[in-house]
UniProtKB/TrEMBL annotation:
The keyword Repeat applies. This is Leucine rich repeat containing 28. It comes from the Eukaryota. GO terms for cellular component: cytoplasm. The lineage of its organism: Eukaryota, Metazoa, Chordata, Craniata, Vertebrata. Signal peptide: none annotated. It comes from Amphiprion percula (Orange clownfish). PROSITE patterns: LRR. Keywords: Leucine-rich repeat, Repeat. The keyword Protein transport does not apply. Pfam families: LRR_4 (PF12799), LRR_8 (PF13855). InterPro entries: Leu-rich_rpt, Leu-rich_rpt_4, Leu-rich_rpt_typical-subtyp, LRR_dom_sf, LRR_domain-containing. Coiled coil: none annotated.
Length: 369
């Protein structure tokens, strides 16, 4: 096997191969032949799937500077070196089925990266720097131990496919709703109890899968005309407390479990006056909306960082008229079993929830309109 490996790499160097296949070679360490002398300056694609590698060399980028695709699926890699960030031309990186417990911040320096696959590892968090991957189109972090997603993920403006199945997510940052190129979002088998109000507002987002989140009982009404997966959702039961259940009814109360902390008022059809705090936030938003996006510079008003963030990324937009909302919502429930989708989604008890900005929008909202 060693002789065969040596000959394969020697031939690749001699003939300046762009592709090198080293899958299924029982490799425990990275082949030193790849790193000798000037390395393989012409190599663009390296396939090393199903070996037993535990790490990568620090001088990988120096010896293989023109790598475009690196496939390391099904090894035993525990850590990747900080020098990974020096692979300036890398567009596709597959580290699925390894033993990664940590992803170094230098991953954010791979500015050409378009596809990043990290499924079936032991990751508990993602570095904020992943938001620096502005050309990233595919991100797969399924089958890890993630409890949250970085807020800066919304800066991956090219992201089209995000897969986060089989993790420990309890919530989804509302910032993800600003990923306007996102076409498919899969978050099946997590611990979600609530979805962002604006999820599905983007026309580009067509496929949303949240199957087997047993505590998830409400879907934003924007998802009604999308391709959704919600089998196994809403099958758990909550013991309701407080006045919310008395005022809005048990079904709506359960659908609103996990509401963001920013929500101060859950209003009803009889609440004709919008709270003053909400009106003030809407007026501030109008001011900022027509100015440059750097809210720290304009205007000379001192506001807490949390409020500035809320102005830049509102809680949601009215499902009836698109008015930005910040602290007050007017929810309206549409049990899925009472909609035209009942025959498609049978093993679920979820409801669609329309989040409106006023009692007027609440009364006039039509799910199928």
């Amino acid at each position: 096997m060693a002789t065969e490996l040596h000959e394969t790499i020697f031939m690749a160097k001699q003939e300046r191969h762009k592709n090198l296949f080293l899958n299924y070679k029982n490799l425990n360490i990275f082949p030193v032949e790849l790193l000798k002398d000037e390395g393989l300056q012409f190599l663009e694609r390296l396939y090393m799937k199903r070996n037993s590698l535990t790490t990568l060399p620090d001088n990988l980028a120096q010896k293989l500077p023109n790598l475009i695709e690196l496939y390391l699926h099904s090894n035993n890699i525990v850590i990747i070196p900080e020098a990974i960030g020096n692979l300036a031309r890398l567009q596709s990186l597959d580290l699925s089925n390894n033993a990664l417990q940590l992803l170094c911040p230098e991953i954010g320096r791979l500015r050409s990266l378009r596809h990043l696959r990290l499924s079936n590892n032991q990751l508990k968090c993602l570095p904020p720097e992943i938001g620096d991957l502005h050309d990233l189109e595919t991100l797969d972090v399924s089958m890890n131990q993630l409890m949250s997603l970085p807020d800066r993920l919304h800066r991956c403006l090219s992201l089209q496919n995000l897969t986060v199945d089989h993790n420990l997510l309890s919530h989804v940052p509302r910032h993800l709703c600003w990923l306007h190129r996102l076409n498919q979002l899969s978050m099946a088998a997590n611990r979600l109890t609530f979805l962002p109000l604006d999820l599905g507002r983007s026309r580009e987002l067509q496929f949303v899968f949240v199957d087997n989140n047993v505590d998830l009982k409400g879907l934003p009404s924007y998802l009604y005309n999308k391709v959704i997966g919600c089998s196994g959702c809403g099958v758990s039961s909550h013991s309701l407390e407080g006045d919310l259940g008395e005022v809005l009814g048990e079904a709506l109360s359960e659908a609103l479990v996990g509401l963001p902390a920013e929500v101060k008022v859950v209003a009803s059809e009889t609440d004709n006056v919008v709270p003053l705090e909400e009106l003030a936030m809407r007026n501030l938003h109008r001011i900022y909306h027509h100015r440059p996006t750097d809210l720290n510079l304009l205007p000379p008003i001192t506001l807490p960082k949390s409020l500035l963030d809320l102005l830049q990324f509102p809680l949601g937009h009215c499902h009836r008229c698109s008015q930005a909302m910040f602290t007050t919502i007017y929810p309206k429930l549409f049990p899925l079993r009472d909609t035209a989708l009942a025959g498609v989604h049978r093993r679920t008890t979820v409801s669609f929830v329309a989040y409106c900005c006023s009692s007027h929008c609440l009364r006039t909202f039509d799910l199928q309109g």
